[in-house]
Amino acid sequence: MSDKDFPPPVKYLDDRLGIGKIGRKNLRKVFPDHWSFMLGEIALYSFIILILTGVFLTFWFKPSMAEVEYQGSYSLLKGLHMSEAYASTLDISFDIRGGLLMRQIHHWAAVLFIAAMMVHLLRIFFTGAFRKPRELNWVIGFTMLFLGIIEGFIGYGLPDDLLSGTGLRITQGMIQASPVIGTYMSFFIFGGEFPGDEFVSRFFTVHVLLIPGLILALVTVHLFLVVYHKHTQYAGPGRTNNNVVGYPLWPVYTAKAGGFFFVVFGITALMGALMQINPVWLYGPYNPAEVTAGSQPDWYMGWLEGSVRIMPGIESSFWGITLSWNLIIPALLVPPAFVTLVALYPFIEAWITGDKREHHLLDRPRNMPTRTGIGAAFITFYGLLWVGGGNDLIATHFGLSLNSVTWFLRFAVFLGPILAFWITRRIAISLQRADNERILHGLETGIIVRSPDGAYSEKHTPISDYEAYELTARDRILPLETGPETDDNGVRAPRRALKKLRSKLSQFYYADAVQKPTREEVQEAHEHSHDADEIHELGETETYREVTSDRS
Amino acid sequence: MNDDKLPVKAEEGHGAVEVAEPIADPGIEPHEYRITDIDPKAADRVERQVAAMFGLAGLLALGSCVAYFAIPRYAELAFGPLTGNANNLVLGLCLGLALFLIGAGAIQWAKKLMVDEEISEERHDAHSTTAQKAEITEAFNQGVEESGFTRRKLIRRSLLGAMGLLGLPAIVLLRDLGPLPGRKLYSTIWAQGIRVVNDVTLRPIKPSDLVVGQLVNAAPANLAPLQEESGVEYQNAKAKAAVIVVRIKPSEIRTPAGRENWGIDGILCYSKICTHVGCPISLYEQTTHHVLCPCHQSTFDLADGAKVVFGPAARPLPQLPLAVDSEGYLIAQSDFTEPVGPSFFERG
Questions:
Q1: Which of residues 176-215 of A touch B (CB under 8 A)?
Q2: CATH number, domain A32-302, options 1.20.810.10, 3.60.21.10, 3.40.50.300, 3.40.50.720
Q3: What is the pTM of this model?
Q4: Which fold would CATH assign to domain B184-347?
Q5: How far is B211 from chain A (nearest CA, A)?
Q6: In whole angstroms, what is the distance from residue B122 CA to residue B124 CA?
Q7: A67/B119 Cβ within 8 A
Q8: What confidence tens digit (pLDDT) does each residue in A225-273 have?
Q9: Please, what is the Cα angle at B192 between B189 and B197, to 5 degrees?
């Protein structure tokens, strides 16, 4: 052991903060390498970009609904009465150098932030990365997605232009239609009747302080847990449930992840420079008596919009009260039910499968056909609602009847997910079979052999041990049994109905899944091919190598 | 090695089954060296690439500052697909490329030059060890014991009660966020004798100004003066009082019972605020007399009491009873007879 001390500045910090101890544990921390692990990074980086550009915007944005006469440089609106919020947004767009750039980076980064979170969530879902011990991190991540959507919606409500005002009007209408407390909530949020002159300053505080603060706290916990649990990895040779194989944080991931931040920032900056987004000056100031045809919210609000659009107009009035089912169902019941189901999915699946082990190896989606099917059903449901949010544009662009599009969607949101579930599940099972085929019989070589008695057959060549291991490195899972009805003493088992339900669901989850072959089956298949394969040496040709490299 | 990763033992309750693994874990694949590991020339070439990217990024960062000052603030650029404010565009391009190149250079460096041998690190269970559990449980219990938290019920209950009650002021303090709704949603600024004016020109409307098939966006004559007094009252009033005035061939109109005197020669006036969530409806189709709300496509038949013919709205648009004053201009007979805009719980 050398008694060499840290260089002075590091020593200074180490003496006070103990950074040496932190570094010792983390500098060479291993992260596995896979493109799908970058999705969460994109979300994190866009959040940082949002904070940076957002701070810039606050220097000039005036969160006030006081009425002013616009005298800025955009001549088409000169002399118009508008709120200070809208006027200052125009100033940022036209009179502050770099202002439009920052506004557009901010908006693009917001759109990207939510998209990245959502795709990241799908990756986690389809690979089963939410399983123990990461269920709580799933809930934290989901909460951030939820907060991000609200944050985005409030953010594009701030400029107080015609489009954002329309979005707020719709939201206000939904709040007002809520049972019992609707009008009170609306009056409290907007400080009286809609539109009032309060919401921009209130929403501003929520947008720049409250929600970003919450997200920042949650991001910190989220990342801490990623470090504590260590990153999941895909199964493969040498990659077990008890290790993590990849590159060290210092230097490889410092450079790769750090570099990736600049790539994401660079691309959003280029988008901000080249691609116009939310040109508020074209919409004009908010006017509660005007609206633009073809109004569309930001993409992540589309599914809620669609949910409201395709709902038939049902309302009941009795005993002096009105229940607006046309809003209660699509805005107050369905979306919360949907997000709750997604947020609780890890716990639901764990209960059904009865699996209490820690999982650090990711599933290939095909190896969990039912989960993959459920994911596809969720995506289809979400996607159809999203399509519903643009039913007018779909009708006009494709020359369809708006009413037919809406009626189609009214049925499709129920049937589509079922169909998607079934098709996806069958595809996953077929892919499992194909994998087994590959393990047992190897690859098709394209070489046709004629046997002495005249029969033609195609030669197969076995896949490499590495690949065969990768394909078989997964659980062999059977459905749960209900267990005996009574124990040895004839006492009825407790909670039997619940156990029955669970066993049925477990059956549904696993019964049709294809099990990987056993050791004996693999041996038998290989011996069989050896016996029949007199030109086995051909397997070592160039063709063989090229074919094996294709693992899809 | 191969048994590491799969069910070690089937714990109670889960369905994983133990069968011998079909293929033994062959261990991490042998490392493949890159051209840059073997050929110093290739490595030097990559070094130059990375340095070039970093260098260019630096120049572009400087370039963005030059652009900021050198390009006039309001200069317009129209160069092929590049159109817009020149300052903004060049600034953005320089900054974006500079950022991107720093990132691309760092990633190239990591991928091509940094050692890329995969290493393996052991994982540990998330939970504490048995010894740790015992230790922490003891420490916790000691604290509970020393404080007497469980023994001294009076302290515990009064503390929990007080903490719970603190939730009340947290809610009560928000009371002044807004006034109570009262009857505000039930009325608009329309009243008997208020003239119907065009919402842009503010001119009062005579029946003869409207031809059959025409639709005019209108407002009450007492709206515009409000703007001088208070912007917010004006906006709030406008959000409820906006109307559409339409002239339909009388023979095509089906008048709901009790509204026989609400129109003037086929001129009808309806609230412009959608009964769904309050967007101003705005798309009129003459031949069918339908108006469509662009927000959620609720469609109302103006010739049939503005009944909903399609979409998520559940109620017809409220109708404003019209009359003609002594000078021949359209006026309201009264305010709307029901609340306008989106439904609400206590609406009845």
A1: 176-184, 186-198
A2: 1.20.810.10
A3: 0.91
A4: Rieske Iron-sulfur Protein (2.102.10)
A5: 23
A6: 7
A7: no
A8: 999 999 999 999 999 999 999 999 999 999 999 999 999 999 999 999 9
A9: 65
